[in-house]
Design a protein that fits this description.
three-stranded mixed β-sheet, 11 helices, single chain, 27 strands, alpha+beta, 33% helix, four-stranded antiparallel β-sheet
Length: 493
């Protein structure tokens, strides 16, 4: 065993020198380099890991957004379409549409009557394709990140759509009108039904209550139930009762004879026959509201075939025999009855000179077909004419709604001017006479101007109103001599 003969101080110095030599073998910069390399390696590893993570995330996003089906969490009417293709979803929606259309049904009831309103009567339109496109768009609009965010949101929170539909409201209104029409009951006032000419009696219809459906409310109730999907609701139409304004009992006291007028005829049998025939032609005539009655239309042409005879008539201011002569007395009698019934005179003409059977200004001449007497019924109810001849009297009565409060109407005429004819003879050439003959023509007659008034009287006969009807002019005429001296021209002596 060798002994270390160095001295203690020498050994200590030796140890320090060795240690210094060891340090020189691993300088400080080496450690710095090693540490730097380690950091670089670690940094590279981190970058690599981050890049790998980013790639994996991108790949996952790409895979997520590249689906050809609806994304999970996207629902229509509560059904999750996740994983369904568009064709699968369309088939699902079509089935729902069929179910909805089948369920779209409502009943309207009134008593024993029933009406069912379905999609057959009210066309239904669905928005399924629009909703499907909106649902399909979830996760398919925007940037990649936005699309992915939509997908994630749908999966976590859900994106919900409802399939709606619309229906033709105008069709509902039309159906409401059809239903209302079948339920409406026309209100009817009592009215005059008929008049028995022989018995002079009236018959009346009974009044009838009506009913009118509230169409606006019916339509609104149907639409409200359809909008709410309350298809089991039964809609009951409502409306109002329509009370008549006129009952039979009210009418019965309003109708009767309105007026009557009688004129005295002559003893001429032929003339009286014509008067009787024309009165018979008027008897039983009905004049409805707004209609007119023509004397000429009632009698037609007065001919022998109808039984009319030749009798005195005025033609061209001369009294001649004419088939149907005398019927002007019937027309004048009718005229007087019509005026007193407060009916409107449409057409009336006066004779060439005053008639003996009525006051001046109160006649109405007729002649087929040029001159006629026509009146009009402007009231609310029909009027009936009753006319007859008996015992040298012709009478015309008007029946219908009587004048108010017992009022009556009369005629009063006033001569305002008397026209004196010339005293000179008037000679008129008439080639129809035999040569060398003369005969009387027009007679000498005084003329008149006459004002005729329609006088209204109360039930006690007191005058309450007076209306001027017209002024009638009867022209004066000279005494006329007709002649034919063979000269072919007029002469005067």
């Amino acid at each position: 065993m060798a002994l270390d003969r160095r001295r203690p101080g020498q050994n200590e110095r030796r140890g320090k020198a060795d240690a210094k030599e060891e340090r020189s073998l691993f300088p400080v910069w080496t450690l710095i380099v090693l540490l730097g390399c380690a950091c670089v390696w670690l940094g590279g590893a981190k970058i690599y890991q981050d890049q790998m993570a980013a790639y994996e995330s991108y790949a996952a996003i790409r895979q997520a957004v590249s689906s050809e089906t609806f994304y999970p969490g996207v629902t229509i009417d509560g059904t999750d379409l996740g994983g369904m293709s568009m064709s699968d979803a369309q088939a699902l929606v079509s089935g729902r549409q069929a179910q909805t259309a089948s369920a779209f049904s409502l009943v309207v009831a009134a008593g024993e009557k029933r009406w069912r309103i379905t999609s057959q009567e009210v066309p239904v339109t669905f928005d399924a394709q629009t909703v499907l496109q909106r649902a399909w768009a979830v996760g398919r609009t925007g940037t990649l990140e936005e699309r992915y965010a939509q997908i994630q949101h749908a999966a976590q929170n859900g994106v919900h759509f409802n399939m709606g539909f619309t229906y033709d409201r105008s069709a509902v209104a039309g159906l409401a009108d059809i239903i209302a029409d079948s339920l409406d009951v026309e209100m009817k006032d009592a009215t005059l039904d008929a008049f028995d000419v022989n018995n002079r009696t009236f018959t009346f219809t009974e009044a009838k209550q009506g009913y009118r459906v509230d169409r606006e409310r019916l339509c609104a109730d149907i639409i409200a139930a359809l909008d709410e999907g309350a298809y089991d609701r039964v809609i009951i139409p409502t409306g109002e009762t329509l009370e008549p304004t006129l009952y039979r009992a009210q009418l019965e006291g309003l109708f009767g004879r309105i007026s009557s007028f009688t004129t005295k005829t002559t003893k001429d049998k032929d003339r009286n026959t014509n008067i009787a025939l024309s009165a018979s032609a008027l008897n039983g005539r009905v004049v409805l509201p707004g209609e007119t009655l023509s004397f000429n239309e009632c009698t037609g042409q007065r001919t022998g075939a109808k039984g009319y005879r030749e009798a005195g008539a005025i033609a061209g201011g001369v009294l001649v025999d004419d088939t149907g002569g005398g019927v002007c007395q019937t027309s004048s009698t009718l005229f007087n009855a019509v005026v007193r019934a407060d009916l409107k005179i449409v057409k009336r003409s006066a004779h060439s000179w005053p008639s003996s059977y009525v006051e001046k200004g109160e006649d109405a001449t007729v002649n087929w077909p040029s001159l006629d007497f026509v009146f009009k019924n402007e009231g609310k109810f029909p009027v009936f004419v009753v006319a007859w001849y008996a015992d040298q009297n012709v009478t015309v009565e008007i029946y219908g709604q009587m004048l108010e409060n017992g009022m009556t109407i009369d005629l009063e005429s006033e001569v305002t001017k008397t026209i004196k004819p010339s005293d000179e003879l008037l000679y008129t050439f008439d080639a129809s006479l035999p040569v060398g003959t003369r005969q009387n023509g027009r007679e000498k007659r005084t003329g008149y101007e006459v004002d005729t008034y329609k006088v209204y009287k109360d039930s006690s006969g007191n005058e309450i109103e007076r209306k001027k009807l017209w002024t009638t002019t009867y022209r004066a005429s000279q005494k006329e001599i007709l002649y034919n001296d063979g000269s072919g021209s007029e002469a005067q002596e």
